[in-house]
Amino acid sequence: MLASIEGEAPATMPLPGPDSSGDELFRMGLLYSTGQGGAPLDYVSAHMLFNLAAMRGSLEAKVYRKELSAEMDPAEVADAQRQARQWLAQG
Question: What is the pTM of this model?
Fold first, then answer.
């Protein structure tokens, strides 16, 4: 889970800012979906980021979000959607 929501940021990962572009959010989602670049492997955070990226115009994020959803339980997808709403409310 991304720390901007719960206050437990991974020390090596920058948090997405409210002005992050769809492409920036998509790239961060890729890091979480693969556990690379200092990000923990975290499908919930990756889904949240892909969701936000899709809302900001990333067509690739829509594809990745759909593929990732197939790998997650419905409760995890719901958690990712809740986190995305919280992130938007903070911005």
Answer: 0.84
